[in-house]
Design brief:
Layout: E1 4-10, H1 19-31, E2 36-42, H2 45-48, H3 50-61, E3 68-73, H4 87-96, E4 100-105, H5 116-135, E5 138-141, E6 158-160, E7 185-190, H6 195-216, E8 219-224, H7 232-238, E9 244-248, H8 254-262, E10 266-268, H9 279-286, E11 291-294, E12 308-311, H10 318-328, H11 330-348, H12 350-363
Parallel strand pairs: 1-2, 1-3, 3-4, 4-5, 5-6, 7-8, 7-10, 8-9, 10-11, 11-12
Helix pairs in contact: 1-12, 4-5, 6-10, 9-11, 11-12
Length: 365
């Protein structure tokens, strides 16, 4: 017997991988145990144009009457350049069809930037998010609500649910340490930001790993995920003096991500501050790794209960010092790994996330 129907409604797909679609797929598998059947649908506005896409949505929504529709929000899913002004209108179409509208805010803050266009984009995103919050029946935020700058009061229809790792079960990773490693300690980097920010991340990675290698001997650095291959030439050039065994791969299937993390000793996360919406950081937690990262405005429980070794970006050389401590101190490293395993089971596993969804949605009946 199928469960209560829930529609996950997506906009424009991302490339080369669509983390939001993967999120919905893993969530849907876990929600069956909560008595829900999650079905993924898309609004194909990039292909059809907004007028035709809206008409198609009105037609489909008639069949969803009474069901929950969880609309997945990122600014770029609903606008090619991050001006999602049509997004609230889409929610109004759903409300008119008498469906129960939930918005899952994967983007919880408007984009940064100091140019005039950035300020305009930020205003458009804030307008869309505030209006969406007024229209919807329920809102799911991927970071704690008290950490969100534009949420001025705690609304009863809001709920915080962290994201999980978009990976097949990582339980196999626990017993793989030492296999294929030939005694070397391994540092994993899952994804690098593109553009100018990515160059800064490469600098951080190289400086920290070279410093650690100079103290503990040969290290293995495994870099994979988005923009890894575009960073390969610079990484190889900067590590050419030896001391670091470099492996660079591109976007990998989930099973290979788990395999790469399972033979690593620590995940180095430098793509901004760690938070409960950072899937690539949570991937390390899911595989039971210590995570070297920095704290910021979104860093709060339950991510702080995982095995984090925090560094300060403002303190010169601190990333290298923190990474070295994790690599040198086997007992500290094992303690952090255990914390990650416990946090994964309690907060970041898909069954735990699905249970939060189920409890919240049942509370709104």
């Amino acid at each position: 017997m199928s469960g209560q129907r829930v529609i996950a409604l997506l906009g424009r797909p991302d490339a080369p991988t669509d983390a939001v679609e993967e999120y919905c797929r893993y969530l849907g598998e876990a929600m069956t145990a909560e008595g829900f059947e999650l079905i993924i649908e898309r609004v194909t506005w990039p292909q059809d144009g907004w007028t035709r896409a809206a008409k198609g949505l009105r037609r489909r929504a008639k069949r969803w009457r009474g069901a929950w529709v969880l609309v997945q929000y990122t600014a770029l899913a609903w606008s090619a350049r991050g001006f999602p002004l049509r997004f609230p209108r889409l929610l109004s179409i759903l409300k008119a069809a008498q469906v129960r509208v939930g918005v899952v805010f994967h983007d919880v803050e408007p984009y940064g930037g100091t140019r005039a266009i950035d300020r305009l984009r930020r205003r458009a995103q804030l307008h869309a998010m505030l209006k969406a919050l007024r229209v919807c029946d329920a809102a799911i935020f991927t970071v704690p609500m008290e950490k969100i700058s534009w949420l001025k009061n705690q609304l009863g229809k809001g709920c915080f649910i962290p994201v999980g790792a978009n990976l097949p079960t990582a339980s196999k990773a626990n017993s793989r340490k030492g296999i294929f490693t030939r005694g070397k300690l391994s540092v994993a980097v899952f994804g690098i930001t593109g553009g100018e920010a990515g160059r800064g991340e490469i600098d951080q990675i190289v400086d920290a790993v070279q410093f650690a290698a100079s103290r503990v001997g040969n290290l293995r650095l495994i870099v994979f995920g988005r923009n890894a291959q575009s960073a390969e030439a610079e990484l190889r050039q900067r590590f050419q003096d030896g001391g670091v065994e470099l492996h660079v791969m591109g976007v990998l299937p989930g099973e290979d991500v788990v395999r790469s993390l399972s033979i690593s000793d620590v995940l180095l996360f430098v793509r901004g501050h760690i938070s409960t919406r950072r899937g690539s950081a949570i991937a390390g937690i899911a595989c039971g790794l210590p995570v070297v990262a920095s704290a910021g405005s979104e860093t709060a429980a339950p991510i702080t209960e995982a095995g984090l070794a925090l560094f300060s970006p403002q303190r010169k050389g601190d990333l290298g010092d923190v990474l070295l401590r994790v690599l040198e101190d086997e007992h500290y490293r094992a303690s952090l790994a255990q914390q990650s395993w416990v946090a994964q089971q309690q907060y970041f596993s898909w069954p735990a996330i699905a249970a939060r969804y189920g409890e919240f949605m049942r509370s709104l009946k």
